[in-house]
Design a protein that fits this description.
The protein contains eleven helices and seven strands. The chain has 264 residues and is α/β, with parallel strands linked by helices. The structure holds S-adenosylmethionine (SAM).
Length: 264
C-alpha cells in the first residue's frame, strides 16, 4: 500500500466510511443509474465531449458515463485513496484511454478556465463546506454554453430531530431540503435550469445501484468488504451502526437532480 492511502477522510473533515469505501473500491450516490443517466442526458454528453466528474469517488459512475455516452471523463476527488480506487476501476474496465483522475478540491479546482463541455457532481456537494465557492469554480472551468449537473441526497419529508441525528451520524452529511440546491442554482447565473426530486425506497435503490455494477464486480466488491470487516475493527463498528435500522431513515430521504447551462 502506498503512503498516499494513509491520508484519512477525517483529515479533510469527511466521514470515516469514505476510507472503507476507497479500500472496497465502491462509492455510490442515491438514485444510482437512474440519476447518472438523467444527469448525462441533461448535460448533453456524447462522443467528442469532455466531462469533469467532481468527487468521482471509486470512479464507477464516471466509467458508466464514459462507456455509455462515449465522452472523455476526467475525475477529481479530494482523497488519494479514491483516486487510486478509480484508476483501478478504469483499468479493469479497459477505459484508461478515455478516463483520467487527479486529486483536487471542488472549492479550488486544479484546472484552467473554460476547459470542459460539462461537469457533474454525484452526491458530493453536501460534503463541501463552501457550496457557493465550489459552484463558482464549476462555472469557471466549464466552457461557455456548457452544462453543470448535480445529484444530491435530500430530505424527502420533514424529519424529527432524532432522525436528523441518526442520518447525520450514519451518512456523515447534513441533508438539505431541495430548496437549498434550487437556490444555489438560481443564484449562480446559470440558465436553462432544471430540477426534479425523487423519493427513495429500499427496493428502488437496490435496482438503481445494481445498474452501475455487474454481478461479477459486485461479488468482488463484496469480497473486499468482508475482508475489511474481518480485519478492521473500525469498519466493524461503523457497519454495526449503519445497519442498525436503515429502513427507519430511508423513508425520510430522497434525491434531487439539478442542472443548468453556463451562458455563452
Ligand atoms: C458519496 S461519495 C460519491 C462518489 C461518486 N460521485 C459516486 O457517485 O460514487 C462523495 C465523494 O466526494 C468526495 N469529496 C468530498 N468533498 C470533496 C471536495 N471538497 N472536493 C472533491 N471531492 C470531494 C469524497 O472524497 C467522495 O469520494
Amino acid at each position: 500500500m502506498s503512503d498516499q492511502t494513509e491520508v484519512r477522510a477525517a483529515d479533510y473533515g469527511l466521514p470515516m466510511y469514505f476510507d472503507m469505501q476507497a479500500k472496497m473500491g465502491h462509492t455510490k450516490h442515491l438514485g444510482g443509474t437512474n440519476a447518472t443517466q438523467k444527469l448525462a442526458e441533461l448535460c448533453k454528453l456524447e462522443p467528442g465531449k469532455t466531462l469533469l466528474n467532481v468527487g468521482s469517488g471509486s470512479g464507477i459512475s464516471a466509467a458508466y458515463v464514459a462507456e455509455n455516452f462515449g465522452c472523455r471523463v476526467v475525475g477529481v476527488d479530494l482523497l488519494p485513496g479514491m483516486i487510486e480506487s478509480a484508476q483501478r476501476w478504469a483499468e479493469a474496465k479497459g477505459l484508461t484511454d478515455q478516463m483520467a483522475f487527479r486529486i483536487g478540491d471542488a472549492q479550488d479546482l486544479p484546472f484552467e478556465d473554460d476547459q470542459f463541455d460539462a461537469l457533474i457532481c454525484e452526491s458530493v456537494n453536501a460534503f463541501v463546506p463552501d457550496k457557493e465557492k465550489a459552484m463558482h469554480e464549476y462555472i469557471r472551468v466549464v466552457k461557455p454554453g456548457g452544462y453543470i449537473g448535480f445529484t444530491e441526497a435530500i430530505w424527502g419529508k420533514v424529519p424529527s430531530e432524532e432522525i436528523v441525528g441518526i442520518i447525520g451520524e450514519a451518512t456523515g452529511q447534513q441533508l438539505h431540503f431541495p430548496e437549498v440546491w434550487e437556490t444555489l442554482f438560481q443564484n449562480s447565473g446559470l440558465v436553462d435550469l432544471h430540477n426534479e426530486n425523487h423519493p427513495v425506497t429500499m427496493r428502488g435503490e437496490a435496482r438503481n445501484q445494481s445498474g452501475l455494477v455487474g454481478f461479477g464486480d459486485y461479488m468482488k466488491i463484496l469480497g473486499r468488504f468482508f475482508r475489511l470487516l474481518f480485519s478492521d475493527r473500525e469498519t466493524r463498528s461503523l457497519m454495526k451502526y449503519m445497519s442498525s435500522n436503515p429502513k427507519q431513515y430511508t423513508e425520510y430521504m430522497g434525491y434531487g437532480i439539478y442542472s443548468g447551462r453556463k451562458p455563452e
